[in-house]
Queue: 4 jobs
Job 1
Amino acid sequence: MEKKQKTFFRTFIGSTAAILLAVSLTACGKETTSTTTSELELVSETVSSSVEEVKYENINPLTGENNLADAAKGQRPIAVMINNHPSARPQWGLCSADIVIEGLVEGGATRMMWLFSDVSQIPKIGSVRSMRHDFVELADGLDAIFVHWGGSPQAYTSVSNNHVDDIDGLSDSTNFFRDQTRNVAIEHTGYTTGQNILNAINQKGFQTNINSSYSSPFQFNIPDVKRKLADGICKKVNIYFSAQGYNHTFTYDESDGLYYNRINNTPMTQDGGKQMSVSNVIGLYTNVQPISNDEAGRIDMDLTGGEGFYISNGTYETITWKKGNIASNPLKLYDKKGNELVLNAGKSWIGLIPSSYSSNTSISDT
């Protein structure tokens, strides 16, 4: 596989403008002077120096932030299936994920797939839960190494057919563990850590360099520059997945520019009490259908594409998205003009919301 090429952004407009302004003031002041060749060369050298000073060489491809460790550059992301049953809350390590993707499984419940760019930064996370085929395909479209504890028959078929590199707690007794201090059913107790995931990767001999065609899954604005979105103000959004109570409210905090997550009107927190917050809230509407002759009542999410919304920086806009019917196709987001969506840098929550509940989404400007 091809190695990821070094990518960086350059911001020089401000520096250039300041230098040119200084030159113009010299030329247009009360005393007329001429600009010599040596002075122009100095301007050019200064601009070049300023450009070099604002390189961004450690961009996290999942957040757009300039904070990725050198050792993690060009590495495949890690995708972990996480339980969202009430007995599994508060989850271990909820606030550590770069991206949280949430979608329906059977019984009106949701499950999450947490994405990480740097395996060394993954703390104790869980509870790790069984996979479903839609999440396998989303992970495959990111060239991710997929971590789970068991799975549905459809998910195992997808792993096999699409040659997905996976780490399964059901068959790996050395890198997954049980924490039974909460007095809950055993399926809510499984966890792992970044070090254990790395151990499993080494044991299985997985390729860790990302395929270059997957190295930039999302487009981001320049770090520390937040853009306003086109359709209006969003201080709060309510999002519904089902009648079974897996519903979220994200509320904007102007003091830090983040949206704080509540599930069923209760703060969604990780173990220890820290509330989950993200820079970007992304909702993707999808048609959901039961799988024929599946006794467990499992469902299939249509990942072909559709409409949605993007919320960030106290504002929102409508978007479209596409993945298609091929598992290895990446998830892509687009603005209303059909251009690839530019996200503000920071962590994201992405919800695959049943189209039947689209009318329940409410965006408030207060």
Note: The longest strand covers residues 305-312.
Job 2
Amino acid sequence: MDGYNRGGHSKHSMKVHIIFVTKYRRKLFQSDKRSDDVKQFLYEVSKKYGYTVIQMETDKDHVHILLEYGPGTSVAEIVKQLKQYSTYQMWKHHKEYLSKQYWKHKILWSDGYFACSIGQVSQAVIEKYIQNQG
């Protein structure tokens, strides 16, 4: 095994580090129960769409996720799926608490996100490889 996944006509290793924060930076994950629940919901939706969560952790007001995905999916689509499902499930399971934090229902995450692709090698190695082509 060389660490790459194979499709019908592709060989790939697509990994991304994603961070998204709670709306208004509310410290929703100070509770172990809410932190564990949001992670469980993010694992569930990742599995549903065929993503592999490599590592995930919450802080008081944000979540870090390192996941692997296929080349047919955009990072924006992944973030949308993760945020939508986790928001729905968190409101379903923590409605009383969340309604005290937000005046509008079905809000959990801020609009933006951070995403950074990662690879098996450094940028310098790739640059050198490209420079030595031809």
Note: The mean pLDDT is 90.
Job 3
Amino acid sequence: MGEKDFETLRILKEEGTMEQQVSLPEMLDARERRATEQRRLLDTFHETLLCFTMNIAGPVKNSERIRAGFEIGKKQLEDRLKAADIRWTLREEINEKTGNEIIYMLAQNPLSIKKMTSEIEEESTLGRLFDMDVLGPDGVKADREQIGFPGRRCLICGKPAKECARSRTHTVEELQKKTTQILDEAIREADAQEAARRAVSALLYEVCTTPKPGLVDRINSGSHRDMTIFTFMDSSAALYPYFQACTRIGRSTAALKPEETFAQLRRAGRRAEADMFAATKGINTHKGAIFSMGILCAALGRLPRRSWRSPDVILKECAAMTQGLVAGDFAGLTPETAVTTGQKLYLEYGITGVRGQMEAGLPAVLEVGLPVLREGISKGLSINDAGAATLLALIAATTDTNLIARSDIDTQRQTVTELKELLAQTPYPGREILEKLDRRFIEKNLSPGGSADLLAICYVLYFLESEDE
């Protein structure tokens, strides 16, 4: 069974009872309701009406898959309207078993709107499933031919759609199969792009958060002599394809056991490290983020888009993918074979580091970091200032092995104690306190890189849960 077969199984399983057949009378009633509502809105607003629906063959007009395709189209349409500074007077959306539908009332020339919608319909294969009707204030429908666009083409053969429909050239089963293929490919690509965009944005937000004690930020390079903020920008850009790949791996293996997804990620991670070192000329900027953010993107790939706004669901999936990671990676380790700082700390103190955090579902992120970030922003702080406080809270809530590697465990523990005392009095320290901490960390050559990776995870989850707010 191939990757696309597993993807189909996953979506069908998710759709479950949501996928219902619609009878002809139900479809006719839905069309009449739509026409009546359109007439009412035209009489009320005397503006151009834009109605977006999906052109779906067969008796099933709505499902998880179809709704996902509709959401992609809606986003493309609203992005184009916003880019043209076009605001809608009214927007009505209906999602029922008879289909997905959204109506906009626009104070615009109907032909200019028809040109925009026709461009969207022509720009991608998925656009061939979009049905964007534009009616002028007089109720007359604008045609593609009026603005120089050809008529719609058949999904299967590319000939004029009206001819194929009239002669019934293709069976409903053929059209359904092609529709499923188009939707699956479009959803897979849209999700991979969105996850990668969010991941890279989070890495850039993290490095730009200022001041950050001991870390590279917009003011200085912290305790690092070999890198600057521009090094991190180069590295972040180089990792975009990797985050896309991780999301695709998650999607293609979603019907398999979670650990199977993680096994494939490790191969992709090695390639990503090579890309990072090539971009930074051998400097390690994001090795930890390749691990943690890669797992997060794969978890997004394994989950339906509706779950992306639920941090607990996402992190639970991360935990499922990495069960047994600590035991597996440290199995048979002895003082003679321990080479890395992480291995030595595990043997001496039982510190599991980021592996243990990930296997537990990143509790530091879910229970500490994300709540601090949310609360700070809700209090009116900028995302920069809320993020700086979130970093301190994460350092205080975890055993950052980067701090130990640059000093010793006693220094790390003392740092945690001092930060807990500070945060108990001032949960969101001001710039003066942060700059003082930065100087102290630099003097001691401390760098909480592990906590910085967790801050980036907090940013991604915050972006996703607050989307469209």
Note: The chain has 20 helices and four strands.
Job 4
Amino acid sequence: MTTGEKIYAARKKAGMTQEELADRLGVSRQAVSKWESDAAYPETDKIVELCKLFALSADDLLLGAESAPRKDPATEERHEENKERKPLFDWNELHFEYVSKTRIGGLPLVHVNFGLGHYRAKGIFAIGNVATGLIAIGFVSVGLIGWGLLSLGLLAFGAIALGLLFGAGGVATGVLAFGGVAIGVMCFGGVTVGYIAVGGCAVGHVALGGYAQGFYAVGQTGASGTHAFVMPEEYENLCSYANMHIHGWLGEFIKSVARNLCG
């Protein structure tokens, strides 16, 4: 048996996948695949780890190919003919992975893992198809700061952004949210729902926009609620009411948005 065949056999005997073995050794799945196909050989430190993991001696792992009996050429030729032909293009090769040696709290400082397929990056800084980290960038990202098509985090940016404090995206949630559809305490967007909502269609305690519905509603095409004002016809009434009943920054904010709605 070759070194690669021995690694394959030992891994199978241990009931491990290539990805699980790669995680144990701190390498990529592609590296394990190349070892097992004899396209590459492990570095010295990885050979030591393999021997410890599978209870093999270095001689058993490395000298097996030399000590094996010589195969009959005719038999070997038939064996090669019966092997499955390698595809001209291997989609698995469209993959890149980098794992930094520096670790913090058991996680790599940087983990980059992306390609065609399901590849996950997990680290302090994570970039991958699926990324989890303090700062995460990926098609699906979860982190303190998340950036991706679908992102979840304290601060989230993406097509769908679910932020605890801040969200910005096509669909966004957060204490402060910006998006085509925005939901939050204070939100800005095409369609907004929040305590303070500013948008084309706004619904909230304070709603300001094209059409507004709320306790305080200021709309350009229509407004409905307890205190509703349509711009620009009722701009003066709104300013008078705000000066008397809505004090501080909120009153100034409402008047400022109302002026913009007046065109």
Note: The two ends are 81 Å apart (CA to CA).
